[in-house]
Design goal:
Layout (H helix, E strand, L loop, with lengths): L2 E6 L4 H11 L7 E8 L1 E8 L2 H8 L8 E7 L14 E2 L5 E9 L2 H10 L12 H11 L4 H11 L2 E9 L6 E6 L4 E4 L4 E4 L11 E4 L4 E6 L2 E6 L5 E2 L4 E2 L15 H7 L1 H9 L3 H12 L3 E6 L1 H18 L4 E4 H7 L6 E7 L5 H12 L3 E6 L12 E4 L12 H20 L5 H9 L3 H23 L4 E6 L3 H16 L2 E6 L16 E6 L5 H13 L3 E7 L10 E5 L7 H19 L18
Parallel strand pairs: 16-17, 16-18, 18-19, 19-20, 21-22, 21-23, 23-24, 24-25
Antiparallel strand pairs: 1-4, 1-10, 2-3, 2-4, 5-6, 6-7, 7-8, 8-12, 9-10, 9-11, 11-15, 12-13, 13-14
Helix pairs in contact: 3-4, 4-5, 7-12, 7-14, 8-12, 9-12, 9-15, 10-11, 12-13, 14-17, 15-17
Bound molecules: 2-deoxy-2-amino glucitol-6-phosphate.
The site of 2-deoxy-2-amino glucitol-6-phosphate (AGP) has 15 residues, from helix 9.
Length: 600
């Protein structure tokens, strides 16, 4: 998975491309490169981080007012100079950047090799400039040749193509990988996502699957690459500002986004009530309801499962997207809610595709307007967390939970169950952002001290019950992703069924103790691990009664049980962040992970 950018206008392209690439680095950062046109094609690329490559190759000084760039996360061919994008044709006239995977590249490569084309890289992408060149040699212009090439490709591809022979344009193509065009005055931008261009424009056009666009400095012409038919589309205005996509004074995006959670929740709670009502109706009209999601979004879905059960007596099956094909039992009376902050997670898109094929109706909850999932759904619902740059999801989790709590209230109403608790919840939700703000400020220094004591742990176990269970799963995921400490979250009741054998003198155990019925039981689970010498940290609702029973206590002011996910997740996120920084690691760029997982 990678990020691509492009610029055509009246300013030097290189500094604009470089800055846009820097903003897309979260999509991949094992190599990068740029190509510009200035009389001839100029290409510079290498393995490594963009800043280092720029220092070495002076990307910023590349000439020309038209160019494309790429930041890579290898899928075919190891990270190396030769495998880095842009890729060029044998004549050195066409440059291509690509995000996605070309599934039939071996077959195309063989065809091109048989026609005398030489390949230098191990990538799937390199077939593209050669294929375009093949069609150009047959007499077409650039647009027509790209179109013919696109029709031969199978798989997922967002492409940007420039040519020394037609130096005033970029040709963009989209199939199953995101591609956004930004409209400036006398200049057009292209990128894999919106924040990469926000400092220049907030007027965007989102290319759809099966479309290509010809970009010149003052014009965008969109066509279907299958039929060649022109597509008319009005640009949309994005409300995000460039500053929203910046670090805003925090040392890392991860910390900034943890602190942005109250705002993310506040904005999400402003989602149109009709949207919530439509979603509640969509779910309650179905005979069977599945929530599908991956990673953090899956944990938000589990929180919703508890909330819907407790508040509305409404059962849903929550399934990890990549397993849905194995166990989903779907027909025309099934409703599927796909939860995905990016809207681009391949496993979730595939689950939705399968559900649709079996006749189910699909709704989605996403943070990215115009993302792929929105085009596959009968009903589109949005969280409003703003752009999340850090690889670890934090504020989008809070936004998803907030939205889904509101949904639980709506579903309860739709089922005639809006009793006093429901009304309390509905009005209490509004005060949550302020409580979260206060919690963040108070918890941060305390959790930082706790982090300094846990930073050398080899294993951390997290236990929770009820609505605390999805939280310990999410806490463990945060710890794994950025601290690299082995962490395991489990229902506290499961300890005695096996994991207790791993608890010995000094093993760190974090007990998440929200308010609610299961509190008494988890206190006895704490005793169980204490008896085996565990170092127990409790994160507890009004935890006074736990003093003396645990080694450390992080007490959270009392709140309604169903609000606790939004408060209890904060110390777990902060803990992962502070341990990571104390270990000298970069929380914004965890090894082996990327933000959007657009491959299965
Ligand atoms: C969360 O910290 C992870 N980076 C990851 O598990 C993520 O939640 C998962 O890939 C799902 O992403 P989505 O919400 O964009 O579909």
């Amino acid at each position: 998975m990678c990020g691509i950018v492009g610029y055509v206008g009246n300013r030097p392209a290189a500094p604009i491309l470089l800055e846009a690439l820097r903003r897309l680095e979260y999509r991949g950062y094992d190599s990068a490169g740029m190509a510009t046109v200035s009389g001839r094609l100029v290409v510079r690329k290498d393995r490594g981080r963009i800043a280092d490559i720029d220092r070495k190759l002076k990307l910023v000084e590349m000439p020309g007012k038209v160019g494309v760039g790429h930041t890579r996360w290898a899928t075919h061919g190891e990270p190396s100079q030769v495998n880095a994008h842009p890729h060029v044709d044998n004549a050195g006239k066409i440059a291509v950047v690509h995000n996605g995977i070309i599934e039939n590249y071996l077959e195309i490569k063989k065809f091109l090799q048989d026609h005398g084309f030489r390949f230098v890289s191990k990538t799937d992408t390199e077939v593209v400039p050669h294929l375009i060149s093949f069609f150009l040699n047959k007499g077409g212009n650039l647009e027509e040749s790209v179109r013919r090439a696109a029709r031969r490709l199978r798989g997922s591809f967002a492409l940007a193509v420039i040519s020394a022979e037609e130096p005033d344009k970029i040709i963009a193509v989209r199939q199953d990988s995101p591609l956004i065009l930004g409209l400036g005055s006398g200049e057009i931008f292209l990128a894999s996502d919106i924040p990469a261009m926000l400092q220049h424009t907030n007027r965007v056009l989102i290319l759809e699957n099966g479309e290509m666009a010809v970009l010149t400095s003052d014009r965008v012409v969109i066509r279907k690459f299958g039929s060649g038919a022109e597509v008319r589309r009005e640009p949309m205005v994005v409300k995000w500002t460039a500053e929203m996509a910046e670090k805003g004074g925090y040392p890392h995006f991860t910390l900034k986004e943890i602190f942005q959670q109250p705002e993310a929740v506040q904005d999400t709670l402003r989602a149109p009530p009709e949207e919530l009502r439509r979603l509640a109706k969509f779910l309650t009209n179905a005979r069977r309801v599945y929530f599908v999601a991956c990673g953090t979004s899956y944990h938000a879905a589990l929180v919703a499962k508890y909330a819907l059960a407790k508040l509305a007596g409404f059962p849903v099956e929550v399934v990890i997207s990549s397993e849905f094909g194995e166990i989903g039992s779907v027909d025309g009376k099934t409703a599927v809610l796909a939860i995905t902050q990016s809207g681009e997670t391949a496993d979730t898109l595939k689950a939705v595709e399968a559900a649709r094929a079996a006749g189910a109706r699909v709704a989605c909850l996403t943070n990215v307007v115009g993302s792929s999932i929105t085009r596959m759904s009968d009903l589109v619902c949005c969280t409003h967390a703003g752009p999340e740059v850090s690889v670890v999801a934090t504020k989008t989790f809070a936004a998803q939970v907030a939205y889904l709590l509101r949904l639980a209230v709506e579903v309860a109403a739709a089922r005639g169950r809006s009793g006093p608790r429901c009304r309390r919840l509905a009005s209490g939700l509004k005060s949550l952002p302020e409580i979260m703000r206060k919690n963040l400020a108070e918890l941060d220094p305390r959790v930082r001290r706790l982090a300094s004591r846990l930073l050398r742990a080899e294993h951390i176990y997290l236990i929770g019950r009820g609505i605390g269970y999805p939280l310990v799963l999410e806490g463990a995921l945060k710890l794994k992703e950025i601290t690299y400490i082995h962490s395991e979250g489990m229902p506290a009741g499961e300890l005695k069924h096996g994991t207790l054998a791993l608890i010995e003198e000094g093993t760190p155990v974090i007990a998440v103790v929200p308010p609610g019925g299961s509190r008494v039981k988890i206190v006895s689970n704490v005793e169980e691990v204490k008896a085996r010498g565990a170092h127990v940290v409790a994160i507890a609702d009004n935890g006074k009664d736990l003093e003396g029973h645990v080694d450390e206590l992080i007490s959270i002011p009392h709140t309604e049980e169903l609000f606790s996910p939004l408060l209890f997740i904060i110390p777990l996120q902060l803990l992962a962040y502070h341990i990571t920084v104390a270990r000298g690691q970069d929380p914004d760029r965890p090894r082996s992970l990327a933000k959007s997982v657009t491959v299965e």
